[in-house]
Amino acid sequence: SVVIEFDILRDGSIQNIGILKKTGVDPLDMSAEFAIKYSNPFPPLPHFIKKDKIHVKWSFYYNERPKD
Predict the structure, then answer these.
(1) Long-range residue pairs from 16-20, CB within 8 A, at least 24 positions apart, any chain
(2) Is there a contact between 7 and 54 (Cβ–Cβ < 8 Å)?
(3) Which of 42, 17, 14 is nearest to 32 (CA)?
(4) Is 44 part of a structural domain of the chain?
(5) Residue 62: what pLDDT?
(6) What is the pTM of this model?
(7) What range defines the domain where residue 10 resides?
(8) Could you tell me which of 22, 28, 14, 26 has the C-alpha nearest to residue 56?
(9) What's the longest Cα–Cα distance across the chain?
(10) Most buried residue among 40, 42, 47, 50 by CB atoms closer than 10 A?
(11) How many domains does the chain have?
């Protein structure tokens, strides 16, 4: 699995993207990071969240195809 951390700002924009845990397979790690980068922006934060930003840790799990 890959764990990505990032901040979502009030307007939904993303900052401070980083990889906390790598798989050791660069293409998989980069794919997870790109998935977050290309999701920018997220929807704006809901009004009941009073903070200017929230910190998120997102896990991506990869499954290998069974061998025939």
Answers:
(1) 20/57
(2) yes
(3) 17
(4) yes
(5) 87
(6) 0.84
(7) 2-60
(8) 14
(9) 52
(10) 42
(11) 1
